[in-house]
């Protein structure tokens, strides 16, 4: 006689959904996180007002800390532990993001509020020629011309050198030479800007004699700082291009140089443009190398990079702050706002260029 053993049930049929609900736990209402955030803000602001030491940044930090603690505790009580950890980590991520954005927003707000009072058409279209420091006149046109000319020549020097170096390292470089180039590029990335200025001063003294300062020397100094950034960023973007695209081009009989021109570079053009713009933003605000190489006393408009001193926006800001006084500080803030606006315009132009030349991905 054969005996059949049935598996014993561990509970009644109604225990299944109940067990699943116990595993999942409840769920906080959708309005709970915003409500917790609002209550945390009210509590933090009220406590600081009561203590007589209210500050927007302090209130924001306390609000964020209270929100993370309360929403984590509420989720752990109503929901399960996994959901509570998820909400807590999400809150911490948003808090870190807000903390990182806070200095940037504060900086932009301060520059805009301080610089907008003097920034107008007159300030942008006249120079400081014939203007004494105490006069409520003059503008920044000569510094804009110098910044555009010096940075443009530095980009003209740096972009081809940096891009071709990156192409060599990714597509051709093997052995000790490639390792040596990578090592020196990494070293140059950390060179202080004042060292680059001193190097160009020594080079110019050896070539043209002492005391020779002009915009071209400043452009060479900026290119020393810009080239390693272009090389590293371009190298990383070129390595992101799938190897399958290169192999498909080789399979069709396309030579390597044409594959690089027609396949690799168009595929990476958006990243390459972003890297180049980051390098430009890195050098356009440099002051120390330009003080040593391009001079700091030019007050007239100078379009010739190879003749005479040339003012730039960072040096103009430095010189105005150094002289002190309410009028000079207003000029410095307005020049800083102008510099930020130029950088933003450059980034917008780079986005348009990368979108125009990027490969079309239509089906």
Automatic annotation (TrEMBL):
Membrane-spanning parts: 31-51, 57-76, 88-113, 140-169, 181-207, 213-231, 263-284, 332-353
Keyword Metal-binding: no
Domain of life: Bacteria
Gene from which the chain derives: pstA
Region (Disordered): 1-24
Protein name: Phosphate transport system permease protein PstA
Subcellular location: Cell membrane
Chief subcellular location: membrane
Record domain ABC transmembrane type-1: where: 144-350
């Amino acid at each position: 006689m054969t005996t059949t053993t049935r598996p014993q049930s561990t509970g009644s049929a109604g225990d299944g959904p109940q067990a699943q609900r116990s595993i999942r736990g409840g769920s906080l209402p959708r309005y709970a996180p915003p409500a917790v955030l609002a209550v945390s803000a009210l509590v933090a602001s009220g406590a600081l007002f009561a203590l007589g030491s209210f500050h927007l940044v302090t209130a924001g930090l306390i609000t964020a800390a209270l929100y993370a603690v309360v929403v984590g505790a509420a989720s752990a009580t109503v929901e399960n532990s996994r959901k509570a950890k998820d909400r807590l980590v999400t809150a911490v991520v948003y808090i870190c993001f807000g903390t990182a954005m806070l200095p940037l927003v504060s900086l932009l707000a301060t520059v805009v509020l301080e610089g907008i009072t003097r920034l107008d058409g007159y300030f942008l279209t006249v120079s400081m020629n014939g203007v004494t420091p105490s006069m409520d006149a003059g503008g920044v046109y000569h510094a804009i011309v110098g910044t555009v000319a010096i940075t443009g020549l530095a980009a003209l020097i740096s972009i081809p050198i940096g891009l071709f170096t990156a192409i060599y390292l990714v597509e051709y470089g093997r052995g000790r030479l490639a390792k040596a180039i990578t090592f020196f590029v990494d070293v140059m990335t950390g060179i202080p800007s004042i060292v680059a200025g001193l190097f160009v001063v020594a080079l110019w003294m050896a070539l043209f004699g002492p005391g020779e300062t002009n915009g071209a020397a400043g452009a060479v100094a900026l290119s020393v700082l810009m080239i390693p950034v272009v090389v590293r960023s371009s190298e990383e973007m070129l390595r992101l291009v799938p190897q399958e695209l290169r192999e498909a081009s080789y399979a069709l009989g396309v030579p390597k140089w044409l594959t690089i021109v027609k396949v690799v570079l168009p595929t990476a053009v958006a990243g390459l443009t972003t890297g180049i713009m980051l390098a430009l933003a890195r050098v356009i605000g440099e002051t120390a190398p330009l003080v040593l190489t391009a001079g700091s006393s030019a007050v007239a408009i100078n379009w010739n990079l190879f003749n005479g001193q040339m003012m730039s926006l960072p040096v103009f800001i430095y010189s105005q702050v150094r002289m002190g006084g309410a009028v000079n500080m207003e000029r410095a803030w307005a020049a800083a706002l102008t510099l930020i606006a130029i950088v933003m315009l450059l980034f917008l132009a780079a986005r348009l260029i990368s979108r125009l030349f990027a490969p079309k991905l239509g089906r």
